[in-house]
## 1
Amino acid sequence: MKVTVQSKSGIQEFSAETSDNLLYAGLKEGLSLPYECATGTCGTCRARVMEGDVSLAWNEAPGLAYVKRSKNEVLLCQAHTAGDCTLRVPAKVERMADGAPRPENFSGRIENVRRLTHDVMDFEVALDRPMSFHAGQFAAVTCQEVTGARAYSMVNHEDAPDRLKFVVKRKPGGGFSDWLFDRQVDGKPLKLFGPLGRATFRPEENKDFVCIAGGSGIAGMVSIATHAARIGYFDQHKGHVFFGVRTMEDCFYAAEFAEIARRASGNLEVTIALSNEDPPQDIHPEYPEIRLAGGFVHEVCSRAMAGRFGEIVGFVAGPPPMVDGALRMLIMEARLPADCIRYDKFG
Amino acid sequence: MIDAAEAQKVLEKAELFSGLSNDSIAAIAKLAKTKNYEEGDDVYKLGDAADAVFVVVSGRVRFSLGVGNRASTAQSIMEAGETFGWAALTGEAPRRVATASCLEDTTMLEISGSDLTGYFETDTASGYAVMRKLADRISRDLLSALTT
C-alpha cells in the first residue's frame, strides 16, 4: 500500500504492509516521522487521516488522550491500513541521511533469564540476525501472549551484536512484566522492532557525561558506560553515574558497574543513591569502586556535582517523578543547554 | 489580531487573573500581544528562557518533558482560558522545564513576565492576588507529582 504524508516540510511517500503499523513502516524506509515511545503511550506520533481507511490496533492506547478521534486523528504506532492512504503529520518529515541504524523487524528467543532483585529481572534475546544500535537506544518488544508492544532499552553495547540484553522492573498489573515474572519464559519467541530513540551517546561530542537513572532506567546507562569504556573514551573524559534505588536490597548491576569503573581507571564515578534508607557506609561493601549516598538520586547528583557540571552531557531515565526532578536540576542548577540533556520515554 | 476589549474578556475568564478589578484587567490587557501558532509549532522548548506568560484564546497546547514528548506531571493539555508559562513570574533568569507545543492551530495572549511583575509593583493588591493563585497552583502540582 502507498502511504502519502503531508508534512511541514512537504510531501513524502512510503509503502506499508498490512502487518506493519504506519510508524514502523515509515521509519523502516528512513522517514523522520515524529515518535517517542513507539508503543502507544506518549502520543507523539499523532497524525490526521486525510484519505483512506486507517484502523487502530489498540483502541485503549494511553496516547490517544492527545488525539481528537472526531477529527480523524490517529497514533501512527497503532495505525494500520488495508489500502492506500494520505496522512497529515504536524511536523517536519524528511528522508534521514544514511548512517544512523535504521529500525527493522527482528525475531528472537529469550535466554539467560536472571532474577536481580525481588522485582527486577534481566534476560537476553538471541536475535535472528545482528542489530546495530547506538548506546542509549531501545527496541519495541512484543510476545504472542500479551497484547501490545513494550519499549525496553538495550543494556549491552557491541558492534552489531546478535544478542540483546534487557532489564525489566515488575509493574503492578503490568501485562508484559507479569508474563516475564510468572511464567517460564526461557526459550519463548519475541518480536522486536528497533533500534529506536534519539537519547544516544555520541562519542564525537567529546564531552564528559553524567547519567541519572532510577530503577530499570539504568539499562541505557550501562550501555553508554560500556560503549565508552570499550572505545577508551575515559582516557580523555570523565563519566558520572548516579543510580537511584530505594534500599540496598533493590540495588543491582553493582558488579557490572564496578567492572566498567575498573576499566575506566578512575574516570568513571558511580554512586548508588538510596532514597528509603541511610547507606551503611560511604563505599559499597562488596565493590569499593562504587560510592553510596542517601537521598533522592537527583539530589545526590546535585550535591556531588556542585561546581563540577561545566561542559557536560546529561542522560536521564527512570520513573516520571525522578525524571522531572532530574531535568529541573540539570536545567536550573547545572544550567545545561537543552541539547545537552538526553531523555527518551521510559516507564 | 485580538483587540484590547477582546483581550480583556479573555483575561477576565483566565483563572490566574480572576477576581481582579476591571481596571487591573484592562491594564494587564494592554501588556498582552496576540500570538498565532500552527498545529505542531512549539511555543517554547525545554531550557528556553522563561520570559512570558501565555493565555490560550483558542486551540490546544500540550506540555511535555524531555528531549521527546513525554507528558509532564503538570496538567498536560491546556485549552481556551487556561494560563501557562508562569515560570516567567518566578525567580531570576528562569528557564523552561517543559516543552509546550500546539496540538492544533492556536491563538494566545503573550504577556512579558517582566512587564507583568513590573505592573504588579504598582498594583500590589492585584500582584498579591495573582501570586497567591500561583502559589496554590504550584502546591497542587507538587501534590500531584507526589501522589502519581
## 2
Amino acid sequence: MSDAWIIVTEEKQVAALVAAAKGLGGKITAIAVGPRALADAAAIAGPDEVKWVDAKGIPVEAYAGSVARLVAAALPKVVVASGTVEGRVLAGATAARLGAAVIPGGLKLSALGDRTVVERADLDGRVVETIEAAGPVVTFYAGDDVASEGFAAVPVEPVGTDAAADILVEKTEPAAGAGAGINQAAVVVSVGRGLKKKDDLAIVHDLANALGAEIGCSMPVADDLGWVEKERYVGRSGQHIAPQLYIAIGIRGAPQHLEGIRDAKVVVGINNDPDAPIFKFADYGIVGDLYDVIPALQAALGK
Amino acid sequence: MKTVIVYKWARNAEDAVVRNDGTVDWRNAKMTAGEDDFAALEAAKAIAEGDELIGLTIGDGDASWALARGVLQTISVTDASNLTDNASTAAIIVAAMRQIGGVDAVVIGDSEEYAGVPVALAGQLGWPAIAHVSSASAVDGRVQVVRKQGSSEQTISIAAPAVIAVSAASPEKKTPGMKEQLAARKRPVTKLTLAAIGAASDDKVSSKGTRLPETAAARIFDGDPAAAAEQLVAALRGEGVL
C-alpha cells in the first residue's frame, strides 16, 4: 500500500488518474492547478482530498516550483500526472524535488511490498513494460479515460504558492486551420502516402462527399507533397480531432499521426499492408489496394 | 543568448524490433537524432541569435550531427547509455551542462517516447520550462515561444534561463551535403565521460520485462473488395456512425 498524489491540470483525465492511483491501495491526494472549476471536478473524481492552486490566469507551468514543494513535502511514493504539456512540466519539477524516477506512459500501478510496480506503454505502444522501483516514482498516465463513478465531493483546500515563475502569455490566436471544418466534422476521410498521385485525390473526395465527410491527411501529404492544405494535416503537431468516424486511407499509422486521432470514436484503416500499425489502433480495417477499396466502399454506401 | 542544443540523447523506438513473444531486440541500435531534434536545433539557433550555441549529446551516436548543421562546438558524453528512468537521463544532461556554465536557454526535442526527459531536466536545473513548442526566438533578453494548445496558438514569453522542449511540425527538408559534413569534421567535439562529469549511468528503476499489449485487434475485412466494403459499411451502420 502506497500513498499517491495526482497532479491535475485539466478535467479530461482526472477520473482516470485517480483510478490509476487507486491501484496502489493508499491515500490519494489530488493537487489541481488551474481555475476553481478544475478543483471541483477533481473533488468528485474519487480522491481522498484535493488541494487547489489558483493559477489566476497565468500559465500553469509558472507554478511548477510551488507544486513541487507542496507535493514533495508529503513524501509520496508515487505521483501521477497526465501526459499533457502542463502536467508534464509540473511533474518534472516534482520529480526533481522528490528525487523520483520519471516513467512516461504509465498504464497501471500497484504496490509490491515496499516497491512500486508500473506497467507502461513503451515503443510507441507496441509493448507493455513492467517496471519496479524501490524509491519514489513519477509517471505520466497514458491509459484510457474512465468515466467518473459519481463519488461524493471531498473538500477542496486552497493552498498558497511561492511567487510564480516569470512566464506570460503574450497572445492567443486561433491556430492555423482551427476554422477548417475538419475540427468539427463528424466524419473525416484522411489520406496518406498510399495515394500514388495528386490527381487521385479525386476518388478520395468522391468518397468524402458520399459520406458527408471532411478531408484530412497525414503529415507527408501536406508537408512534403503539398497535395492537401496544411491545416488538414492530422497528427501530433497538426490537428487533434475527435470525429465519430475516422477513415485512414493509405496511412500506415505512425505514432505522431495516431496522436491526432486518439479521441476519434471509430477508426477504420484501409491499407494494403496487413502489418501496418494502423490496424493495431483501428476498430475496423480492410486489407487491400485503396484503388479497389474506395470504389467498392462508395458502391456499398449507395446500397 | 548562450544556448545549449541537446540532441541525439536517446535511441529511436522505431529501431527496436518487437518479437512475437513481446520481447524487444534493439539490434545494437545507437542513440540517434529524434524526430524533434532538427526542429529543436532551428529553435535553438533562433534563441542564440548569433550568440554562443553549444551542442550537447550523450551516448554512442555520431556527435557531428549538429556540427554539420551549423553548430560550431559540441560536447559528447560518450559512455552514457539509454536508460528507462527519464530522470536519470536528465541528470546526465544536467551534469554535462555544469561543464558549460552561464547558459541562458536549453533547447531539446520534446520526444514522445522519452517525454519525461525535458521536464525532469528543467526540474533538476530548477528552471521554468515550456513544452510542445513549435518555434522560438529571443526578444528583449527573454525567450519567446509559440505553441499550439488545442485549436489555439499561444505566444508565450519566458524569462531566461529556461528549458524549451520543441515538437517538430515537419521533418528536416534538406540534410547536409558533403561540404557540410566535411566542415563538421573540423569542428571541435569535447568528449567527456560520466566519471569526468560526476554522473552515473544507473537506472533508478528495474525493468521486469515486456509483453505485447492486450489491445483488441481491429476487425479486419479482407478478400474481395466489394464484399469487404459491404461488411464494413454494415458494421459502421451498426455502430451508428454512418
